[in-house]
Design a protein that fits this description.
The chain has 289 residues and is of the alpha+beta class. It has helices spanning 27-31, 52-64, 79-82, 127-135, 153-160, 241-251, 271-285; strands at 16-18, 36-38, 43-45, 70-72, 87-90, 93-95, 109-111, 118-120, 141-143, 163-167, 179-181, 187-190, 193-197, 206-210, 214-218, 222-224, 229-231, 258-261, 267-268. It has 2 domains: 4-81, Alpha-Beta Plaits; 85-285, Metallo-beta-lactamase, Chain A. It is 22% helix and 23% strand. A hairpin with a 4-residue loop joins strand 2 (36-38) and strand 3 (43-45). Helix 6 runs antiparallel to helix 7 (271-285).
Amino acid sequence: MANVQQRLPENVPGDFFVDSTCIDCDTCTQLAPQIFRDHGEQCSVHHQPETNDETRLAMMALVSCPTGSIGATQRHDAHIGIDAFPLLLEDNVYYCGFTSESSFGAWSYLITRPQGNILIDSPRFASQLLKRIEAMGGVSQMLLTHKDDIADHELFHKRFGCERIMHSDDGATRLGLEQVIHGTEPVQLDDDLLAIPVPGHTRGHVVFLYRKKFLFTGDHLAWSPTRQTLTAFRSVAWYSWPEQIRSMEKLLSYEFEWVLPGHGDIHHADAQSMHNHLERCVAWMKTVR
């Protein structure tokens, strides 16, 4: 729970606040940019909610914060935020909320399907979220993009008996996962789902393409609101920036409309616009050393 005694001075006066335990994961600024901002190495409230919709967004950020760094001086019904998740994005794809500190607040997603639901990367193992996921059909598969964002995967496996899938170069075998991806060639997981190895951020990073529409990108690719195009993160290319450039070029062969990252901003556009943005991203990456 956030501590009002540790309220950051960058918060505007009023009900909602961020305290000094904030790790700057930007979960709140992406969920509710009207309310929260990144003021440097932490986040803070720049506008107090004035409407029911704004209060709902603030509460969604509060329950999603991985470190419990968001608080309020007034009493609010927590279910305003809790019941919003999983949050429908489009079709049968949802954002889970309830981010985990162990994955630095990485976003995770749920795909609902008659043949079994799929969880992409791991949210926090929170009882409120578990009840909602169970009501939606549970989890049959858990797709892990890379070793940074596995969080509570073991607890989800024990709860739902889901098959976990990750690349061998990120420790899938050592972790005892049920399906291991090897090499750099794409792997067709089923008719609608393709795993594409994209080394760069980590050696075994994988992105998952669903229905040639939704690209779950982990820490490989995201939208830059500053540059207004797709981007990668040079400062966290732990394995190899040149390899990440080659991986990004590989993605030019695929069609998608949504970029759904673990870190960074979500973006949706038509397939041709996404392709153009990806070309711009690759060109920019080649100028960065």
